[in-house]
Amino acid sequence: MAFRVRTITAGDHAAFNASQPAVSFLQTPAWASVKSEWGSESLGWFDDRDQLVGAGLVLYRRLPGVKTSLAYLPEGPVIDWASDDLAGRLGPLVEHLKRSGAFAIRIGTTVAARTWSAATVKAAIADPGITRLSDVPPDTVNDVAAQARVQLRHLGWRPPKEDEGFSAGQPRWVFQVPLAGKDENQLLKGMNQLWRRNIKKAGKAGVVVTQGGIGDLPDFYRVYLETAKRDHFIPRPFSYFPAVFEALLAEDKDRIRLYLAHHEGDLVAATIWIRVGQHAWYSYGASSTAKREVRGSNAVQWQMVTDALAAGCTVYNLRGITDTVDENDPHLGLIQFKVGTGGEAVEYLGEWDLPLNRLLYKAFDVYMSRRS
C-alpha cells in the first residue's frame, strides 16, 4: 500500500490520537506549545482511500547560522510499527522532511523490545557479579520490535550511541506498572514489603494527598528546588511548569494533574501526573528533606497509581531509569525505588537517527553535547 504524508491540523491530529488506545504525551499537538523554542508541524499518514491512519508531531530545531533543522518526532510517529513494510511508512516521512529542509531526522518508538519483572531486577541487584540489567536474560522478548529493528537498520536508520548523541532524546529504559486486569488490592500486594509498610505508615501519620492546580505550582517548585539541590540535578526554570499545564489542559481538561502530599499543613511531597488514553505517566516529583519519615513520596505515588487505575489506564509509567544494577552506581537508588512498585523494567525499541547531511548532523551533535 502506498502511503502519503502531509500536514494536518492540530484538531485532526488530536482527534486521531483520541482514537488510539494510548499515545505519548510528547506526540500530542499541545506539546508543540510547550516546546515553543522549536518549530513544529503535525503530520498525517493517509492510505490509498485517503483515510488518516497515522500521525506524528515533528519538532524542528534550527542549526545556528544555517537554514536547516533537525526534525525530531519524540516517541513518535504513531504508525503501525508491527508492519513488515516500514519503508512504505517511513519513506514518505523522509521525503516530506527533506522538502522541509531537515539535515537529519530522529524518530522514537515506545514499542517494548524486552521486559524484566521486578523479581528479576531484584535478583540482578543482589548479584554482585551483575552490573547491567541488559546482561540479564529478559522475561519477555517482543518479536515485533526485533522485526522493526532489522527493517530500520536496512533502511539506513541508526540508534544513537549509548550515553552519547545530542541531548534531545527520550529514555530508552523505563519502569512501568501494568494495571490491566488488576484491582487495588492486587496492585498493593504486588509491591514489596517496604512500599506497603511506607504507604500504611503515611496513612497512620496523617499524610493527606490532594490535587492542586496551576496556582499551587509555586509550592511544588519550592520543594522541587529543594529536591534538585539534595539530589544534585539541574532544575528546570519555574516558567516551564505553568507552560506545560496551560498547554496540556487546553487540549484536555484532565490531561495533567498536580498532586500534593501534606502532613500537618506542611508540604512533604508533590508530583505531576499526565495521562493520554490508557497510559499514565509520573512526570515530575519532589519531596522535602524534613519529615521524610512520614513517607509522603510513597503516599502520593500510591494515589497516582490508584487514580490511573480508576481512569481506565492499563499502564502506569514511572519514566526513565538506567540499566545499571551496580551497587556502586549512583543511579541504582532510582531503580531500587521504582522496583518496589512491583512493576517491570522495559527497554523500548527507542530512538533512531537518519542523517540526511552527515556533516551538519555531526556539527549539531557536537553543539547539543556542549549545551548539555
From TrEMBL:
The enzyme's E.C. designation: 2.3.2.16
Record key words, sorted: Acyltransferase, Cell shape, Cell wall biogenesis/degradation, Peptidoglycan synthesis, Transferase
Family statement drawn from the similarity comment of this UniProt entry: Belongs to the FemABX family.
PROSITE patterns per UniProt: FEMABX (PS51191)
Gene name per UniProt: femX2
Organism (species): Streptomyces rimosus subsp. rimosus
Protein name: Lipid II:glycine glycyltransferase
Cited SUPFAM superfamilies: Acyl-CoA N-acyltransferases (Nat)
Entry GO MF terms: acyltransferase activity
InterPro entries associated with the record: Acyl_CoA_acyltransferase, FEMABX, PG_Glycine_Bridge_Synth
EC category: transferase
